[in-house]
């Protein structure tokens, strides 16, 4: 099984990892694996949020459209069928 050794880890990163490991009753190595496994999920989430931001910006930039038929007319027409 591959292994990883990290040198010159910033103190605040080490402390955050150690705190999470203690809280979750895991070793530092186990907690590091858990954290690293979350990276693809976090990246995918960021991509989805970026797409949503672009869609929102596009919607806000476009002028409102007039519907060819009012919703009330569509409902009335459907009920009369």
Can you lay out the helices and strands and say which pair or pack?
Elements: H1 11-23, H2 28-37, H3 39-61, H4 71-79
Structural summary, described in words:
The chain is mostly helical and 81 residues long. It is built from four helices and no strands. The longest helix is centred in the middle third of the chain and has 23 residues. The model has no long low-confidence stretch (mean pLDDT 92).
Give me the secondary-structure category: mainly alpha
Helicity range: 55-70%
The helix/strand order is HHHH
Number of strands: 0
Percent of residues in β-strands? under 5%
Radius of gyration: 26 Å
Query: Poorly predicted ranges (pLDDT <50, ≥5 residues)?
Result: none
Oligomeric assembly: single chain
Q: What is the molecular shape?
A: elongated
| Alpha carbon gap, first and last residue | 68 Å
Q: Mean pLDDT, as a whole number?
A: 92
Biggest sheet statistics:
none
Helical element count? Answer: 4
